[in-house]
Amino acid sequence: MSVAYFAIGDAETVIIVEHDDRDHDRDGAPPNDRYVLPRGMVNVTDAHISADPPLPEQLTNAIGDMQDHLDDALREVPALATVERVVVSGAGPQAIAAVEFGGTPTDDEFVLTRDAAEDVFRTLATESTPDRRRNPGLPADLVGVIVGGCCALVAIFRSLHLDQAVIDTRGVAHAGGSGR
What we know:
The protein is α/β, with parallel strands linked by helices. It has helices at residues 41-48, 56-76, 91-101, 114-125, 129-132, 146-159, and strands at residues 3-8, 13-18, 32-37, 85-89, 109-113, 164-168. It has six helices and six strands.
C-alpha cells in the first residue's frame, strides 16, 4: 500500500511518499519520494492572514498558495496522486483533530473526514481570536496561527481529492508551534 506522510510545520510541509512493497530499488528497499513545500502553518498565516477574523479573500489566497505548492509536488512526485492512505502530522493538524474531537483524541491516529476538516476550518476561520480561544482542544499557543494550519490541511484535502486522512495525534498534549 502506498502512503503519503505530510508533516505540516511552522515554515514548511514535508511530504514523504512510501511506495507499495512491490516496488523496490536495487538494494531491495522500497523507494520513497520526498518533497518539501516552502509553506507551513506560521508562514501561511504571516503571508496571508492579517484581519481578525480573517477576510474571505485572505483565506482564499492562503489556501490557493498552498495548493499551488501542492501542484508542484504532484508534478515532481506523480505517485502522490495515487496514494492509498494519507497521514498528516504536526501541531496544527493535531489541534484540528482535537477541536473536532472536542478535546485530546484518545487514539494515536484520528481519522478526519474532508467534511469535518472543512467544518473545523469554517468554524475557526470565522471566529475572532478571543472566540477561537474557547474551542475545546485548541492549545493556547496555536490560537494565532491555527487558521493558517487549517488552510494548509484543507488545501491537502482539496488538492488530493481526499475523502479522509489520518491525523497522527501522538504527542497532541505536548504539541505546539511558535503560534501567536
